[in-house]
Amino acid sequence: MKLIYKGKFDGNYDNLPYREHKPNYVKFKEASNATELAIKANIVAIILLILLLVIAFKQGNYLNNWGILLSLLSLFPHEFLHAICFKEEVYLYTLLKKGILFVVGNEDMSKTRFIIMSLLPNIVFGIGPYIIGLIIKNNVLTTLGIFATSMGCGDFINVYNAITQMPKGTRTYLHKFNSYWYMPN
């Protein structure tokens, strides 16, 4: 994996890296731009945030400022964990005005690897600390988990799309802003 930091995303999807489409490719039914994705992800994030807060409060765990700070500090490491799941070049972009950081890599991935790539940071910074925090009654870990999990909602949407749209044996790849799948020969 070679990570290339591209800086602020200029909003022009044609400037994102891409390669030629595979034969018989199918575009995922997903957000067509960053704004649409942000709106969908924020709706899911609010629902998830409320659910995780209710569970934590019922367990006697409360919000902690250090946990909130740690969740914000996990933004770039979150994207790095996505990036290490790629074997080839991967590009990191920021769109902080809309609260978005993302990586783009153009290599093919199996459905399983795509799901792992999408979930890895959410497990490491979100779900894992949340569960551990609940078990050991640590408000910092629980708070980190709550906010890091809800900040990863765009990834959960990608996983949902892969599970519901990719037939068995297909491979996926990114092309500019969107995901596509195809059946290899």
UniProtKB/TrEMBL annotation:
Highest taxon listed in the record's lineage: Bacteria
The keyword Membrane is annotated on this UniProt entry: yes
Alphabetically ordered keywords of this record: Membrane, Transmembrane, Transmembrane helix
Record bears the keyword Membrane: yes
InterPro entries linked: DUF3267 (IPR021683)
Transmembrane segments: 37-57, 114-136, 142-163
Full protein name: DUF3267 domain-containing protein
UniProt organism field: Clostridium sartagoforme AAU1
